[in-house]
Amino acid sequence: MDKLSNLALIAQMIESAEKNIQSAKHLLREMMGGKDSPANSSRFSERAQVLSVSEGGKIIEGIFDGQNMIGPDGKQYPVPSNYSSKSKLVEGDVLKLTIADDGSFIYKQIGPIERRKIIGVLSKDEKGDFRVMAEGKTFRVLLASLTYFKAESGDEVTIVVPKDHDPVWAAVENVIKAPGENPADLEMMGQKPREEDSEMDEI
To answer: Is 158 a residue whose pLDDT tops 80?
Structure first.
């Protein structure tokens, strides 16, 4: 075979290999059921690759994966849970990270994706982790959000999820306390609220 024929064959083999890899990734994601895993997290780094890193390495843009920001290099940058909860960040949101001279991280949401809200019920699994059951699915939520709302198992929770893809994580929008948990309900049942609950209500 001449040189041109060899080059054409090599190009064809590379193209075929790339297609096989893409098919394998797609099949693996389906087998994992959309769960957060090293293989599945590549969907975030793939999107982040088209974003920019400044020349000085001070500003990085990436994709929020529910807990961390995935940068163009595939690295995970920790996002404070308090910021994530307060901002109600959703999987797929684009974030800009500014690394200050003193090493502190400053995040800003610059590309929120389309969202939708659903209502579910909060429960705790065998490991003690909280989950929200909604629409026949289970979503992970940040503990900081649940702590802020003083949420407990059995409470109804309004969560925010991406509109166009099935996420692992959801943001907590609000919590509807289960009957018998707030002071008004306890009084109706002939019980007195705990002193610490009354004190927190006064704060």
So the answer is: yes
